[in-house]
Amino acid sequence: MRRKDSTSVFDEKSKIIAADFFRDLRNRICSEFEQIENTQNQTRHRDMPAGEFSRKVWHHADEDGTPGGGGEISLMKGRVFEKVGVNISTIHGHFSPAFRAQIPGAEENNGAFWASGISLVAHMRSPKVPAVHMNLRMIVTAKHWLGGGADLTPMLPSPQDKTDFHASLKECCDRHDPKYYDEFSAWCDRYFFLPHRDEPRGVGGIFYDYIDTGDWDKDFAFSKDVGNTFLDIYPKLVRRHMNEEWSDEERHTQLVKRGRYVEFNLIHDRGTQFGLKTGGNIDAILMSMPPEVIWE
Amino acid sequence: MRRKDSTSVFDEKSKIIAADFFRDLRNRICSEFEQIENTQNQTRHRDMPAGEFSRKVWHHADEDGTPGGGGEISLMKGRVFEKVGVNISTIHGHFSPAFRAQIPGAEENNGAFWASGISLVAHMRSPKVPAVHMNLRMIVTAKHWLGGGADLTPMLPSPQDKTDFHASLKECCDRHDPKYYDEFSAWCDRYFFLPHRDEPRGVGGIFYDYIDTGDWDKDFAFSKDVGNTFLDIYPKLVRRHMNEEWSDEERHTQLVKRGRYVEFNLIHDRGTQFGLKTGGNIDAILMSMPPEVIWE
Model ipTM? Predict the structure, then answer.
């Protein structure tokens, strides 16, 4: 019999599979992004050194100080990627009583949880290259589920990028469930929206949460595919635009657009709120902040 | 007999006195800040034209579209004041049902409210000159009260500025109630604090709210004194430092410090939340955002 305050009767092997995949994906992403840095040839920044990821380990503790896992932030400030952060974490502990009511299954076991995930935000030097966000996560309370998604934020209109990004994610979704793409792209549009500006954050992508069909292997195959699809399509968009020229006006437009990104993340984003309320590492939570921003 | 959904039985003359004072204070502040722009003589920016305020009128409407007053944003982007906004507003209407519970007296009259105030945020070009925030407000529901305050955010350590700013506000408080300064400076320290960073936003000042001693004229004399005291002390601090030289490193420190300002305002500030939840004008609400910010 399990203790009342432990997480669900759930195959511990799945936790290991998920955390291992997130780590491996992180490694492949960082390697690919460093390769992009090496091949850049844009006028303004070709004389800068190619960026390399640096890594910072952090440890999680509950509000009462009880330790429970941690994470690693990989951060690169390069000549293509002005600032890109890739964070992986695997933490466990107890949600605070005030927070439990918002989390499925958290009140049934005194707030005990286990969570693992990867989160990525890239802010690019070129306003011609869209910013991007990708996240995959597995949460275990008395219930367990998978969530994630990827979404694109062009700084200037770029319909072809939007089309290709969505087509790639649609193919990915269709490999797993014909209903997924419509449902998850609509969810993405609803989620990444700034009501106070009455405008979307970007051009969407997919967003999903609370996935538990009863077949974890099948569900996780979808999350893996989303991660691998991201790693396939986003570098293509970066390479498509990274050597193009841009004007100071386009750079200005980019820095103003980044302000909207900040507003969304600090006012609305659930991931940010989740991090702040679970005593998350502040560097990891605010890794998503753009390097340079303008408010007019 | 008054209708159930109107604001309290409260001297309408006081509303006019308050709104008129806020407008007059706005005019005097803008005039003083423009004078400062004209006398600047700092190496980096002396060739820029002196800043002048531009004004933008906005109108308030409740969520259902019912109009109810509005405000004026005065904005200056100058060579001393990189971005300073002074907003005055006088609005009325009904708080949304969800918001009423948080506002004293708002549930007793179906959310009817009247509010008038002045709000100011100044972000300076020089990292040697502290940023500042000042706000005065009068709210009427079934109850009525005054609130406000002023607080200083130096970008580099400047103990003399802190000392003088606090001394000035303490003298102001002491003219009205010997308990005010201790109470309101402690409230300011509690309020302008970033729990997620475990650091204060600035070096404090005073913050007060829900003032209603039963003698409105006396209470409002205090708010007027706070406004006039601000207009006396802050320009002195600006003139003290505005012609000093600064380094690129000091500028960088300033831009990073401004990120904390953004985090506070978007994550914690009640005024921002109040504005967003009452359908406030987005330009007026986010007028406080710094013009240029860095997250490292």
Answer: 0.87
By the 10 Å C-beta count (0-12 exposed, 13-18 middle, 19+ buried), B170 is classed as middle
- B133 classed as catalytic: yes
- C-alpha span between A46 and A50 (Å, rounded): 9
| Domains of chain A with CATH codes | 12-288 (3.40.1500.10)
Residue type, B125: R
> Which residues on B lie below 8 Å from A83 (Cβ)?
295
CA distance A14 to A8: 12
A186-223: pLDDT as tens digits: 999 999 999 889 999 999 999 999 999 999 999 999 99
Terminal Cα-to-Cα distance of chain B (whole angstroms) = 60
- With an 8 Å Cβ cutoff, the interface of chain B facing chain A consists of 83, 196-197, 259, 262-263, 266-267, 276, 282, 285-286, 289-296
Q: In terms of residues, how long is chain B?
A: 296
For residue B222, the distance in angstroms to the closest alpha carbon of chain A comes to: 34
Please give the single-letter amino acid code of residue A42.
Answer: Q
Beta carbons of B196 and A259 less than 8 Å apart: no
Q: Which of A150-154, A267-271, B143-147, B271-275 has the lowest mean pLDDT?
A: B271-275
Q: What is the SS3 assignment for A5?
A: coil
